[in-house]
Amino acid sequence: MQGHGFIYMIFAQVIFFIVTLILILWLVKSRQSFNSVKQILDRRLAKGEITKKEYKDLLVVMGV
Description:
Blueprint: H1 4-47, H2 52-62
Helix pairs in contact: 1-2
């Protein structure tokens, strides 16, 4: 039963890197969604669907 510790160590490293990669991808995706919120508001302002005051209020509410 010797030598199994090495296998568990490799398995733990692989799990760590997978979790880290998923976290990084999630953060990048969430940041892109905030950018898309601003883009949507920009388009709505350009089309005249919302006023400048509403635009500024929505930016504050959305945290952009």
